[in-house]
């Protein structure tokens, strides 16, 4: 007897896969964020900081940091049965920024992590995504001991456009990071729909 589809069960769902970048300054928590949510063992390309790098690596505010990402971090998270995100963490130091263009290829959107102790370090990432019209969200990583500021004050300090979402988060906590990732996917989808409407009107 040939079984019907209903008797065999539902056919497997082919999930939609989306690429999300995680960017920001040196030591802001990009590697931690990817590791907090990845359902696979994250790929990390970290190297120890050396004395030779101290003249070019500003570690003020993150003096305890002893490693740095030199290529990228990579992880994967299934948000729903039909939606999988591939996460690519960018290197934070200026001397590795040449890799950003390749990592950004095909990205749906980006998370720009910010640290209120070194807020100016995320300006370059914000400028990068604005210039390339890549939708992004700012996630303020709430480090222990760091001063807390109202979201509106941080938004003004970063000179963010009104449509750019800003969320407080803890890059160590899986559920907190998931909220940020859902937020950037929703924002990117909204921006894509807005662009389609602009083309058809």
Distance between the termini: 54 Å
Strand order of the largest sheet: 2-3-4-1-5-6-7
Low-confidence stretches: 1-7, 48-57
Based on secondary structure, the structural category is alpha/beta
Mean of all residue-level pLDDT scores: 84
What can be said about the biggest beta sheet?
Answer: 7 strands, mixed
Give the beta-strand count.
Answer: 7
Question: C-alpha Rg, in Å?
Answer: 19 Å
- C-alpha geometry: globular
What percent strand? 25-35%
Order of helices and strands: HEHEEEHEHEHEH
Helix content: 25-40%
Question: How do you describe this structure in short?
Answer:
The protein is of the alpha/beta class and 201 residues long.
List keywords for this structure.
single chain; 201 residues; alpha/beta; 7-stranded mixed β-sheet; 6 helices; 7 strands
